[in-house]
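Hey, quick one: can you model this chain's 3D structure?
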Amino acid sequence: MPVGGARDSLRILTARGLRAFGDGCVSLLVPIYLLQLGFSALEIGAIVTATLIGTALMTLWAGMVANRYSVRRLLLAAALLMIATGAGFAMTTAFWPLLLIAFVGTMNPTSGDASIFLPLEQAALAQTAEPRRRTAVFARYSVIGSLAGALGILAASIPDLAADWGIGRLAIMQLMFIGYAVLGFISLVLYRPLSPAIEAEATSHKPLGQSKRLVYGLAALFGMDSFGTGFLVQSLLALWLYQRFQISVTAAATILFWSGICSAISYLIAVPIAARIGLINTMVFTHLPSNILLALVPFAPNLTIAIALLLARSALSQMDVPTRSSYVMAVVTPEERPAAASITQVPKTFAWAAGSLISGYLLTLSSFGWPLLIGGIVKAAYDILLLIKFQKVRPPEEQGGETEAGKGAAPERLSAS
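Sure thing. Here's the predicted structure for all 417 residues.
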């Protein structure tokens, strides 16, 4: 990797960590803050939903226009929007202005990786990374986001601590939104020196050209996977553990914490595996066993076996995250990367929400883990379909040719088999 590219990558990864910390913090802080302002559950739900829909639309927009504009300038604009979002939440207490800020702003209620920054950063990282190091770079991107987001969630407890010291909770929360804006400013400073190495040479005004069919096929399958994931979001998984085994909240939190640690480790383990067996094979042959383990959890006769299955599943389940990002960036042309990143990410938000809604209903009917069983089956079906349709669509570096691979060119075969 060129020196300039290495510096660009470091700046982007640092900004990713700062933003993930802020996202993790506000994902927990926003509903509590709105409650403190006296909003009803319906009003809070409307604002949170606005952040979700707005995030998805802004992510899609960023990916679709990035091939026509400088990625660096779009990142700077996104950082300015983050600053305005934090300042807006800190200074505004009326419902309609907050609803508008939530919709057009950068706050992410899921503390995940969906945001206007995502397609831009992923495209920039793919430009600066050598093909054979691309998966390792995306693994670091995922690990940094995961760990920083977890720390941000812990930081959201500061208002409670401040209340014990006699400081007003509302004032502290508003200061924390100012802190979110400060993180946006630091991101702005980090993005400003980015070099031209992050830019792809635009050859078309269309966000997607020859890769359109491929990208839409991947987006449909990734949406199917996210629909399955919606059946086992952490809050619903904790609820099932409580219903089935009558465990305490502390015990459930401990299980989920170690599950998260196993998932974070799996990001890094995916790198050497992908180098050995390829990106698609890594995505499928680590993800499929994890989903089989997930489908077996409802049949666990006791809590010990259920925990063992959940932790084993977590150790395998996230290896497809960096490999998936690396694969999408590898099989499209450089100028298509922002659009590909956004189009394959946005359906996840809505599919995840649909799965969660059905899962919540199923848990009201029975203490048997139907959501886990159904989620495991849906996600396993995704793995099989992914293998069937995309195993032959291989990145240039896996085909043994690196003439254009160093620049991240797409493979010749761009349509799903």
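One thing worth noting: The first helix runs from residue 3 to 36.
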